[in-house]
Amino acid sequence: MAKQSLPTAPFLKVASAPHMHCGTSIKGMMTTILLALLPAAVGAIYWYGMEAVRVMALSIATAVIVEALCSKIMEKEIRIDDFHAVVTGLLFAFILPAGAEWWLVVAGSAATMVLGKMLWGNFGGAPICAIAVGWAFCTVSWPLQMNIDATMLNTTLVNPLSQLKYFGMDAIADASMKEYLMGNQLGALGAVQVGALLLGGIALLVRKVITWEIPVATVAAVLIVGGIYYSIDPELYANPLFHLFTGSTMLAIFFLLPDFTSSPNTRGGKIVFGLMAGFLIILIRTYGQYPDGVLFAVLLANMITPLCDMIKPKPFGAR
Amino acid sequence: MAGMWKEFSKGLWAELPPFRLLLGLCPTLAVTTTAENGFGMGMAVVFVITLSSFIVSLIRKIIPKKVRIACYITVAASLVVAVELLMQAYAYPLYQQLGIFVPLIVVNCLILGRAEAFAGKNPVHLAVADGLGMGLGFTLSLTFLGAVRELFGTGSVFGMEIMGASFEPVKFMVAAPGAFVALGLILAGMNYLSIVQAKRRGEPAPENPSTGCHACRACAGRK
User: Fold this and answer.
1) How many domains are contained in chain B?
2) Which residues contact A285 (CB under 8 A, 6 or more apart)?
3) Contacts for B93 with CB less than 8 Å, ≥ 6 apart
4) Which of A57, A126, A211, B51 is deepest in the core (most CB within 10 A)?
5) Cα of A228 to nearest chain B Cα, Å
6) Are residues A309 and B170, on separate chains, in Cβ contact within 8 Å?
7) What percent of chain A has pLDDT over 90?
8) Contacts of B219 in chain A (CB under 8 A)
9) Is residue B212 one of the residues assigned to a domain?
10) Contact criterion met (CB < 8 Å) for B175 and A309
11) Does the residue A7 lie in any domain?
12) Best residue of B168, B181, B196, B216 to probe chain A, by most A CBs closer than 10 Å
């Protein structure tokens, strides 16, 4: 018998109008994300002052203008009122040092929007997290200006990750996880507001903007892989909680990895994706050239998204 | 004469090698960090492709059909060795810059492609015109790509300062990923141009093969 194809008749029946709308919209989701990012923004202003406001405002303004211009050039409907450009601009500002020069913010934010979002169509097309694209563009182009330790000389905060990288475990011996949670560490301006981001992330989970699989799998992988290194030699490798509470890990877990278009769709795929990302975070931090390689981990994890999407239940009747 | 001009000029725009035919992408991506490197690589390719088209076209009747690829490669390899030795003698700094990519001209698909698709079937004068046109098109494209990357990556073109002192070089453009991004943007620009030209002539725009549900592997395409 010849191989039979699946029945072609629609098995989900759509009733005739009027229909009820559940009320979710891109705009609503983006507003929720913005609200979830608000505590971190406040934290950034508390620790870095008006410098942080300047970077965030510049980044958001550039992102919105670039999206409008690109839509105009592409002869598409201008949809800046869905706030996705605002979220992207704010998230991009969160991974910059507070002392970033204005042209760096403008160029990076524009690159984020053009290379990361608009080139792939508009919202919904990007296979890679736009913010990580912009970060990689800036880090490769201007390593000195993106170096947090080099641009933030006028602060008393300490960057735990470069301490660990260049001075070893002794330098972070008196590290306090509670202080790290409060944001008392030098790093990218929003990404290190760890406690605030954790709050926002939980809010997103509660509001069901993101699902639990990716954050839980990433945290698990960071704890497990970090724990393995820690148990091999606690004098040489940092506590896994340290990796969770420093640098951009928390931002990646709740805001960058579960990015709608660049993460897998299925439950199994999401878990594999999260595990991969967590594994890469520890690996890059342990052996990589950069002190904080979280954004590279995000980029690399995005690469396996199409593979993760193949992990799915068999359709009924398929062989 | 008209036929020769036609074969010569198609390599300059209609079938511009790296941007229209998408052949010879390895040197296109690898050596175009500066306009000068792109130009030097292009000149080496012009030499090899013109002579290889000439020789292949001369001996096309005595090459056995079954081993023609090996014959083409042998011809190209001999010419590339000649280029390599000439570059070592007269342009040693450029040779050092291009490094491994000079010997790799042997396996440049552009040369094999023209030998297989054109020189192996056409008389000598047409084959030479085709080879010269393709080679010059390749040189122009590589020089253009190199100039774009050098302009943004270092702020100068052919070593001449253009952007001014306050410009912070976008090192991304001279790094490896910059080659892919720059090439992709140029290809997009070429496609946009052809859509605009088709519109102006009143023809239907060429269909984009990558839109629609069937193009995505995520769900619909799998059987």
Assistant:
1) 1
2) A161, A243, A247, A291, A292, A293, A294
3) none
4) A126
5) 34
6) no
7) 54
8) 309
9) no
10) no
11) no
12) B168
User: How many domains does chain A contain in total?
Assistant: 1
pTM: 0.86
Domain span including residue A152: 26-308
Q: Which domain holds residue B81?
A: 2-174
Beta bridge partners of B161: B156
Q: Is residue A93 part of a domain?
A: yes
Nearest-Cα residue of chain A relative to residue B220 = A310
Q: B222 or A278: whose pLDDT is higher?
A: A278
This complex has an ipTM of 0.81
Q: From the CA of B78, how many Å to the nearest CA of chain A?
A: 40
Q: Give the per-residue pLDDT at A310.
A: 87
Q: Could you tell me the two tokens for A92?
A: 């991009």
The pair of three-digit structure tokens given for residue B171, joined into one six-digit string: 């090192």
Among the ranges B120-124, B206-210, B214-218, which has the highest mean pLDDT value?
A: B120-124
Residue corresponding to tokens 């909680």: A241
Neighbours of B59 (CB within 10 A): 13
The per-residue pLDDT for A283 is: 93
Q: Residue A123's closest CA among A80, A90, A93?
A: A80
- Looking at chain B, how many residues does it have? 223
Residue B93: inside a domain:
yes
